[in-house]
Design brief:
It comes from Mycolicibacterium rhodesiae (strain NBB3). The chain is mainly alpha-helical. The protein contains five helices and two strands.
């Protein structure tokens, strides 16, 4: 099949019919480990979010989560050329934060709650945790 539209890539992918090789196995393994790292990053960032310096809340884990997520996406981009596959650590991070934000838990535990500024900690975590890796992906796609 040739190109159907002007200025579009060919829609034929002969590499999809090849057999699964050892390099593919390593790639899938590394991407899976990076996705698991995204889950661990979300759990640690969520649980360390209410850290205080004295009496002032200092959610440094939100900033660190953004930097770690950017590093995970950057590492995933070195193992795959697909931005969708490279976004897997970010997607698992977002899914984990969404699960942790549910209020219906055994024992009625609430992860994202607190007085004053900490009432908006979940929004801060989402903003600071997703903007740096989204910028890495945007830069890769538009490069």
């Amino acid at each position: 099949m040739g190109p159907r539209f002007a200025r579009r890539r060919d829609r034929q992918h002969p590499d999809l019919s090849s057999s699964f090789t050892g390099a593919d196995f390593r790639r899938v393994t590394v991407l899976t480990l990076l996705a698991i790292d995204g889950v661990l990053c979300a759990i640690l960032a969520s649980f360390f979010l209410p850290i205080h310096i004295g009496t002032i809340p200092f959610p440094v884990s939100a900033l660190l989560a953004g930097l770690v997520n950017a590093a995970l996406v950057w590492a995933a981009l070195h193992w795959t050329s697909s931005p969708r596959a490279a976004a897997l650590p970010l997607l698992t991070w977002l899914l984990t934060v969404a699960v942790l934000s549910l209020r219906e838990r055994p024992g009625d535990d609430i992860v994202f709650d607190g007085p004053g500024v900490m009432a908006y900690a979940a929004l801060l975590l989402l903003a600071l945790g997703t903007l740096p890796p989204a910028a890495v992906l945007w830069r890769y796609v538009n490069a």
